[in-house]
């Protein structure tokens, strides 16, 4: 949506019957489908309230990634159930960025091997699966057992967290990098760099439009970080929430 003038002075949170609500002055925040904006954890409510409080003279909706994710979880505009969300996430394995390799130029092939192989090896060990990589345009042949393992793992997350997981996967074009990020094996900066490896390689060789590159990089980091935070704050484990807040 376009920007609109800020129409509120104060932002606060309150606990209602269905969870935690966001108050803009004396108005309760609503979703695009006019549902009461209610989130499952106080920590997430604080994070969303901070997004609204950070807006200056105008409300820049495109900067409010956590609010957008909450709206998606509440309104579920695509009307998908839990298994449909999980299957959509796992389908990214078939076109996972870190599984597609080049043969030429040799320098890029070597860079992909050095940077991507370790994270693939981590995922194979972490989830006890076979993933591999391929230089074929058809991509790697991912075993059905690997897909089912990831289906089982993702099923341990609730619907809210799954919305966040799919969002991160969509940003990074990689299930493997996303799980590495959510499992805190790699940082946001590292995950984004690995997802943009070929582009960064080309920039090193040919240069770039500086402001455009910097904007894209910062925007992707913001989205990946917001999605990861959303997953953790929607987790049913209070231990995770408290640990994140302490960090």
Automatic annotation (TrEMBL):
It is a peripheral membrane protein. GO terms for cellular component: mitochondrial inner membrane. It is found in: Mitochondrion inner membrane. Gene3D superfamilies: ATP12 ATPase, ATP12-like. Its main location: mitochondrion. Plays a role in the assembly of the F1 component of the mitochondrial ATP synthase (ATPase). The lineage of its organism: Eukaryota, Metazoa, Chordata, Craniata, Vertebrata. GO terms for biological process: mitochondrial proton-transporting ATP synthase complex assembly. It comes from the Eukaryota. Interacts with ATP5F1B; involved in the assembly of the F1 component of the mitochondrial ATP synthase (ATPase). Interacts with FMC1. Keywords: Chaperone, Membrane, Mitochondrion, Mitochondrion inner membrane, Transit peptide. This is ATP synthase mitochondrial F1 complex assembly factor 2. Belongs to the ATP12 family.
């Amino acid at each position: 949506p376009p920007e609109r003038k800020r129409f509120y002075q104060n932002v606060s949170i309150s606990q209602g019957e269905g969870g935690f609500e966001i108050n803009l002055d004396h108005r309760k925040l609503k979703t695009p489908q006019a549902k009461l904006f209610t989130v499952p954890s106080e920590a997430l409510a604080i994070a969303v309230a901070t997004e609204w409080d950070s807006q200056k003279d105008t409300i820049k909706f495109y900067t409010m990634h956590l609010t957008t994710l909450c709206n998606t979880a509440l309104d579920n505009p695509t009307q998908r159930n839990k298994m449909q969300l999980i299957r959509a996430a796992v389908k990214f394995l078939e076109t996972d960025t870190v599984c597609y390799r080049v043969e030429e130029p040799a320098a890029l092939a070597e860079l992909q091997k050095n940077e991507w192989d370790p994270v693939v090896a981590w995922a194979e060990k972490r989830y006890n699966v076979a993933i591999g990589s391929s230089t074929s345009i058809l991509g790697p042949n991912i075993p059905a057992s690997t897909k089912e393992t990831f289906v089982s793992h993702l099923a341990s997350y609730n619907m809210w967290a799954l919305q966040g997981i799919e969002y991160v996967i969509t940003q990074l074009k990689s299930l493997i990098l996303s799980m590495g990020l959510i499992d805190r094996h790699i940082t946001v900066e590292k995950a984004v760099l690995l997802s943009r490896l070929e582009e960064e390689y080309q920039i090193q060789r040919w240069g770039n439009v500086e402001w455009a590159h910097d904007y894209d990089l910062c925007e992707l980091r913001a989205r990946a970080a917001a999605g990861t935070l959303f997953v953790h704050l929607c987790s049913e484990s209070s231990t995770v929430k408290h640990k994140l807040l302490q960090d």
